């Protein structure tokens, strides 16, 4: 099984008080944790990628715990989430897809078995590549007020033989959400959609 070799980790927390409307007393908190890892498959085609996915499962949980702690360490305060990957030029898109289960299930487990699928984005790019990580409500993907994204990236990665794995969490809806649709208070929690 490949070893997980991390070059660096970045933690970002935003506090958003307004987006042009009236300032809110309690800001929306939106955070991301990025881990820059060596890609064990860079530069070659490997048929069986599953060993690395298995190795990433405890790593995903560690990343989710780090992010939750930065946002106050209260699982009940988290309402939105997303994940993503930026794969260096020596890798392929499928290497980023390895993050789906380890990243998504880690957050869902940590947040009390959240029901909604964790939205995702991935792309191949070099140092400085930015990624818009999509965000939805943790229990119902159709809650329109929580449709959001957080742009992430770093200046010196990913290098050609690296992958940047990303987790994002938020404490609520967009700060001035007012576009209708299913409200968080109306979630039935039956299927992860509504």
Work out the helicity level: 10-25%
- Oligomeric organization of the protein chains: single chain
Global mean pLDDT:
95
CATH fold-type name: 60s Ribosomal Protein L30, Chain: A
Number of domains: 1
CATH top level label: Alpha Beta
**What's the main sheet like?**
7 strands, mixed
- Count of helices? 3
Find the count of extended strands (DSSP E, 2+ residues): 7
Structural account:
The protein is of the alpha+beta class. Helix 1 runs parallel beside helix 3. The model has no long low-confidence stretch (mean pLDDT 95). It has one domain: BB2672 (60s Ribosomal Protein L30, Chain: A, 2-Layer Sandwich). The protein starts with 5 loop residues before the first strand and ends in a 24-residue tail after the last strand. The chain contains 3 helices and 7 strands. The longest helix is centred in the first third of the chain and has 21 residues, at 50-70.
At a glance:
This protein has 194 residues and is of the alpha+beta class. Helix content is 19%, strand content 30%. The longest helix has 21 residues.
Features:
7-stranded mixed β-sheet; 30% strand; 19% helix; 7 strands; 194 residues
Secondary structure blueprint with pairings:
Blueprint: E1 6-16, E2 28-38, H1 50-70, E3 80-87, H2 93-97, H3 100-110, E4 120-124, E5 130-137, E6 148-153, E7 162-170
Parallel strand pairs: 3-4
Antiparallel strand pairs: 1-2, 2-7, 3-5, 3-7, 5-6
Helix pairs in contact: 1-3
């Amino acid at each position: 099984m490949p070893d997980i070799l991390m070059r660096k980790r970045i933690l970002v927390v935003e506090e958003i008080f307004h987006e042009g409307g009236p300032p809110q007393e309690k800001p929306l908190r939106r955070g991301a944790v990025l881990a820059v890892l060596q890609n064990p498959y860079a530069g070659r085609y490997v048929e069986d990628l599953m060993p690395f996915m298995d190795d990433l499962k405890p790593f995903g949980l560690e990343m989710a715990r780090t992010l939750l702690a930065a946002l106050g360490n209260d699982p009940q305060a988290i309402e939105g989430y997303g994940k993503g990957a930026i794969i260096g030029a020596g890798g392929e898109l499928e290497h980023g897809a390895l993050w789906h289960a380890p990243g998504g299930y880690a957050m869902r487990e940590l947040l009390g078995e959240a029901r909604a699928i964790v939205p995702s984005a991935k792309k191949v790019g070099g140092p400085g590549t930015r990624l818009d990580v999509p965000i939805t409500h943790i229990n119902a993907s159709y809650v329109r007020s929580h449709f959001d994204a957080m742009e992430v990236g770093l200046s010196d990665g990913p290098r050609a033989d690296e992958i940047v794995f990303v987790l994002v969490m938020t404490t609520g809806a967009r700060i001035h959400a007012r576009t209708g649709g299913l409200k968080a208070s109306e979630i039935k929690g039956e299927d992860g959609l509504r």
